[in-house]
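Narrative summary of target 7.
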Amino acid sequence: MQCLTTSARLADETQVDTAKAANDAALIMFTSGSTQVPRPCVQTEAESLSRYQDYVSMLRPDANGLHCVVHPIGNSRNQLFATLFAGMPYALLDIDSVGVHGVLPWFNKQGVTCARMVPSMLRTLAATADAGITAPGLDSLSMTGESIYGADVAAMRSVFPEATLHAVYACSEAGPTCATVVTPEMQVPSGSLPLGQALPSKTVSIVDSDGVELPTGQVGRLCSGS
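Modeled conformation, tokenized:
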């Protein structure tokens, strides 16, 4: 559940202190995240903006294109606002409305150029696609929520031959943190894909149990900041 908040402290918007506004609460998410214990998580205006900017970096804005998020997947709000920031139309596709076999034809009919889904959905699409049916108009595919393997890259290319893959590492509380980018020209990697590079608005470090940054090669906790 996500609760949006607004701020109306001043009648004259020209007097708003932007530094303070950046730290105002934009929304409250009730999420179990990675802890399996439901709890509220406050997201500030600045944090919200940085998340949207990170998702925009994964899109290829096209005024004639369509960004589609294939349900079920969480945090569709982030993709919605990122898509609007990029100046693209947005659609949330419920598989029940078209069926698995109808997804690729629907992508082609609607002119989908960017999409987001979980790896399990991609595997299902690739395994059940009718012979010769692809969606070559898709330029960008982002996936998160599960481990992603080289076999998934091969599966993607069988149905989305022109797509660049953004394999995103994220959690509900911190949002997207890192991404591995695989372009159509790159060889299919073996094994699981690495976490990749930190996204533009993020800093990433490995720390010990006391929060002290560890030297290269040491095992510890992943610490992400904006």
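The CA atoms of residues 13 and 202 lie 30 Å apart.
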